[in-house]
Amino acid sequence: DTAKANIRAEYRAAIDTAIKTSEGKLTKALTDAITEVNGKIESLTTRVGNLETSVNNLLGRVIALEEMIQSVVIVPAYSDGSVKIANDSLYIDCIVSPSKAVANLVAGNVAVLVNKVKTKANTGVDTIKIIEGNVFEKDADKGVISVRVFIKNKIPAAGSTLTVAVNVKKDKSDFTTEFVPVTLPVSVSLDKRSIVVQSPDSDKDTTLIATVKNSTKGVSWTSSNTNIATVDNAGKVKIKANVIGKDTIVVKTVEGNATDTCFVTVLPEGALAGEFSISAIKKVYFSQGNLYWDGDSFEFETNQYDVRSSWSTSHVSHFFWSKSAEVAYAETYSESGTAGTDIFFTNATAETAKSDFTVNGVTGKYRTLSTAEWEYLFKTRTVNGGTGEGKSYQRATINSDATGNYGMILYPDNYTGTAKTSYTSAEWASLEAAGCVFLPAAGYRNGSNVNYVGEYGYYWYSSAFDDFAYSVYFFSNSVSLGCLGSRHFGYGVRLITE
Question: Quick check: helix, strand or coil at residue 51?
């Protein structure tokens, strides 16, 4: 029995050893197999990744190929195959193929080639100018781009034609269209834009010269107010005698309907030519000099700088503020019943009246400025890009090389010169020819005594404030608007006409 037990134990031990040995070999074989499979999976994953990369690269090349510009063609604006110019710019529409290529085009991708072709006696082609184009509109669905190029001063002279092409560069694409002609705009310009004369010396003829570009089919002429002036087919303007008013002469091309305008202004006798804005919608003209009473009628001083340093019954140039002319030029002030609604030199009680004068035999054409008009003239009106002193007006001495007259220069609306504080006689003559107004420092009168001539300037407004009235006052250190002065002081008066 003991022997049998030992044999069984040895048998079991042998079996256990065999099993353990087999398990080790099996585990190793299984592990090796798994390792081999994992290696093959990794290899397959790498191959799949490489394949995906290749596919993506191929797709990118396909997309790039789809968006690569294949062609660019100009779409003519007119039936003759030409493109157009408007407002100094050239406008060109182009069809780009494929349409997807339009989406990413910017100004840097587009250039316009401008080619001036000589004609008639001249042959050959001028050097082509390349100008960067502005892609201001694009439609990716239709494949259309709209290009605009500013070409002012690049339009050829008469006797030449202009052709253009469009070049588009994007990535490896580089396409240039064929050259197409440009329809040049018809234009017309007059040698004069303004004619200003005085009545009654208005019976004059002026021939306007019209210069037409890019058309040979002639022009037509029209006058908006034939009561003032007429114009014939040759541009001869005939201004009628003894009239006062405004007219507009318009020249228009038969082809293209291009226009230009000349404004005709016939002023009352004694008015200066310079235009001055006194509101956003109204312009006026000043009288040739300060107002004075000669004992029988109102007149204007001969020169803008003329002033009187004493009072005389035959030459009163400093006026009391009154609604009665007789009181204004009298030696002593005497007026009762004054009110803030009074208007200078008239019994009207509305600011719109602003007073009317009969000067040089002309009735109802000259008047004084209101408070609001003086304020606009000095503070709001823009001259040469600015307002106020140094732009619209300047205290200055004129005729500095001769009599040396101190006062206030008012520069007209269209003045482009530089303001100065001193002008020689020759310089003042040029300023006056340009429409400048000079308000001399005429001082003021108290009774028959005239004071501060050449130092201070006082000029009445049309409106009053009880026993006072408004004025503009200036001297070397200051300019004051809307100053209240006693009515019994005699101030200067400068009239205007519309």
Answer: helix
Integer Cα distance of 322 and 345 in angstroms: 6
Give the bridge partners for 245, in sequence order.
266
> Does residue 438 surpass a pLDDT of 90?
yes
Which CA distances in Å does 176 have to 13, 85, 105?
A: 95, 20, 15
Q: Tens digit of pLDDT for each residue in 14-34?
A: 777 766 667 667 777 777 777
Rg of the chain, C-alpha, whole Å: 45
Residue carrying the six token digits 């003021």: 444
> How far is the CA of 392 from the CAs of 278, 375, 459, 475, in angstroms?
12, 12, 18, 17
Q: Residues 6 or more apart from 12 whose CB is under 8 A from it? A: none
Residue type, 66: E
The DSSP letter of residue 33 is: H
By C-alpha distance, which of 157, 239, 155, 252 is closest to 210?
Answer: 252
Question: Would you state the structure tokens that stand for residue 370, as one six-digit string?
Answer: 């209101």
Q: What percent of the chain has pLDDT over 70?
A: 87
State the greatest distance between any 2 C-alpha atoms of the chain, in Å, as a whole number. Answer: 177
Contact 188, 181 (CB under 8 A): no
The SS3 of residue 98 is coil
Q: Residue 55 and residue 50: Cα distance in Å, rounded?
A: 9
pLDDT score of 348: 54
Q: Which amino acid is at 104?
A: N
| Token pair of 463 as six digits | 């409106």
Do the beta carbons of residue 317 and residue 295 sit within 8 Å?
no
Q: Give dist(CA 49, CA 224) in Å, integer.
A: 84
Q: Peptide bond before 200: cis, by omega within 30 degrees of 0?
A: yes
**DSSP strand E in 351-456: where?**
357-359, 362-367, 393-398, 405-410, 437-440, 444-446, 449-451
Q: Which of 337, 326, 322 is nearest to 469 (CA)?
A: 322
Identity of the residue numbered 26: L
Nearest to 196 by CA among 239, 260, 242: 239
Reported residue count of the chain is 498
How many contiguous H segments (helices) and E segments (strands) does the chain have? 4, 35
What's CA 391's distance to the chain center, in Å? 18
pLDDT of residue 241: 83
pLDDT bracket for residue 217 (50, 70, 90): confident
pLDDT in tens, 391-431: 999 999 999 999 999 999 999 999 999 999 999 999 999 99
